[in-house]
């Protein structure tokens, strides 16, 4: 069965999309650690990030860098943190989390609950910055 992220990429499940290219897709995490918490995924469905073929892995990292620049421009923060967990969804992905302190990257803490309007506003702000790059 297709992963939830493949279903998002295919438009079968809604997402707050921030960017897309030929090989990758980026959207807001629905349970964010911070406003602007973004997931970057390869369109190719592979569970473990280090099982990706080299070309897809490089494309994913280059795309994540560009999206991180857009996140930093759109969301007030000191820097954008990067994490790979994959404990919940078996489709390789990179978390980009706007950081003001080390604790902002603690995945055990209670996630933010944002309104649909807030998610939409953040996603469109990041998308607008991505379009400038
Ligand atoms: P992990 O696999 O441990 O890296 O965690 C998966 C992440 O995907 C979690 O932070 C979830 O909140 C997020 N997530 C799961 N389903 C969705 C979805 N439908 N839309 C956006 N984010 C999701």
Describe this structure as you would to a colleague.
There is one protein chain. This protein is of the alpha+beta class. The protein is 33% helix and 19% strand. The protein has 3 helices and 5 strands. Strands 1-2-3-5-4 form a 5-stranded antiparallel sheet. A hairpin with a 3-residue loop joins strand 1 and strand 2. Helix 2 packs across helix 3. The longest helix is centred in the middle third of the chain and has 21 residues. The protein is globular and about 35 Å long. The protein starts with a helix and ends with a helix. The mean pLDDT is 98. The site of adenosine monophosphate has 12 residues, from loops.
Largest sheet: 5 strands, antiparallel
List the secondary-structure elements in sequence, H or E.
HEEEHEEH
Q: What is the number of helices?
A: 3
Helix content: 25-40%
- Average pLDDT metric: 98
Overall form: globular
Determine the strand fraction and express it as a percent band: 15-25%
Radius of gyration: 14 Å
The counted number of beta strands is 5
| Unique bound compounds | adenosine monophosphate
Give the end-to-end Cα distance, rounded to a whole number of Å: 35 Å
Q: Spatial order of the strands in the main sheet?
A: 1-2-3-5-4
| Helix vs. strand class | alpha+beta
- Poorly predicted runs are none
Quick structural gist:
33% of the residues lie in helices and 19% in strands.
Give the SSE layout.
Elements: H1 4-9, E1 17-20, E2 24-28, E3 38-42, H2 54-74, E4 79-83, E5 94-99, H3 116-132
Antiparallel strand pairs: 1-2, 2-3, 3-5, 4-5
Bound molecules: adenosine monophosphate (AMP).
Adenosine monophosphate (AMP) binds at residues 4, 13, 15, 29-31, 39, 85-89.
């Amino acid at each position: 069965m297709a992963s939830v992220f493949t279903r998002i990429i295919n438009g079968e499940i809604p997402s707050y999309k921030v960017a897309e290219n030929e090989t990758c897709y980026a959207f807001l995490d629905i349970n964010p650690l911070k406003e602007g918490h973004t997931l970057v995924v390869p369109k190719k469905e592979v569970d473990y990030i280090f099982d990706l073929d080299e070309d897809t892995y490089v494309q994913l990292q280059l795309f994540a860098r560009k999206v991180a620049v857009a996140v930093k421009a759109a969301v007030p923060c000191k820097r954008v943190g990067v994490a790979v967990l994959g404990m919940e969804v078996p489709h390789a992905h990179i978390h980009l989390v706007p950081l003001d302190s080390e604790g902002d990257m603690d995945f055990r803490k209670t996630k933010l609950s944002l309104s649909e309007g807030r998610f939409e506003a953040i996603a469109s702000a990041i998308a607008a910055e991505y379009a400038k790059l």
